[in-house]
């Protein structure tokens, strides 16, 4: 019996050593990834409705800067709160301010602007409701998007006009910047440049190519597939990226998949399914050319529709459908609110 006990003890020690070793290896990988990173992305909101408190919004920064730009703004304060709880800002030197909470300091001092893809409420709700305690910053969007946001929300009826345009009285907290299509613009107080493109959706939507030196990251607002929308707008972006990739590195992307493959095209309302996304990415890959052109590209899936219905798990189903169709060697990531990702 003592022999058996001894053996069990030895096995336990071995298992423990092995787990420590695996954990260390995993840590090495994470550290290696962080060391080579160019961008940091914080997931403030991972879904495309219907859960208030978790709607499309991300923070992006160059790892060389302490300042973020928000990519859409469906959920801002709850997203920052959840991310603080999950230590997503552990690498950010946050200057303690006795007047403001940690989340308050992050929003007020470290978020330097908003890139809004389109005027739908699930992409701007967080910005609107946080505006009374926000600091002065820029809202960047395509001209048509800025116009719709001004007319719909910052009109003194839906919400006070916190911007410097449109219906008086203007409170001038947000300076509204119209982004030209296809032309890089610096994002004030960050290390990033942004180039905007138009996307097909029931209202005009947009994609943003962010540049940090010779590294690129692309964020897509809501979009339909070219085969459904017949406007060729995604083709324009794939062509642009493929050309830029001749001398720059694409580090990752956020793109939407709202519905499962089973959803008929006439009920997509300007959104993608796993199958349509993969068709688009194949088209992109053929433009980049070469052997396995998108191998290991990190593709973050946003805007999966949350549901209150029983017995449905759209996240799981969409992940399965994407994994089954992924013959491009992509790293498909289904993000979680509060998570930090590096690229
Ligand atoms: Zn949306
Ligand atoms: Zn939308």
Characteristic key phrases:
7-stranded mixed sheet; globular; alpha/beta; Metallo-beta-lactamase, Chain A; 14 strands; 9 helices
Structure in words:
By secondary structure, the chain is of the alpha/beta class. The chain folds into two domains: 1-36; 39-342, Ribonuclease Z/Hydroxyacylglutathione hydrolase-like (Metallo-beta-lactamase, Chain A). The chain has helices at 2-35, 77-85, 102-110, 125-130, 143-152, 226-229, 233-244, 274-288, 314-325; strands at residues 39-45, 57-62, 68-73, 111-115, 137-142, 174-179, 185-186, 193-199, 205-212, 215-220, 249-256, 298-302, 331-333, 340-342. Strands 6-5-4-3-2-1-14 form a seven-stranded mixed beta sheet. Strand 11, helix 8 (274-288) and strand 12 form a beta-alpha-beta unit. Helix 2 crosses helix 3 (102-110) and helix 7 (233-244) packs across helix 8 (274-288). The longest helix has 34 residues, at 2-35. The mean pLDDT is 94. Bound molecules: zinc ion (2 copies). Residues 48, 56, 120, 122-123, 222, 303 line the site of one zinc ion.
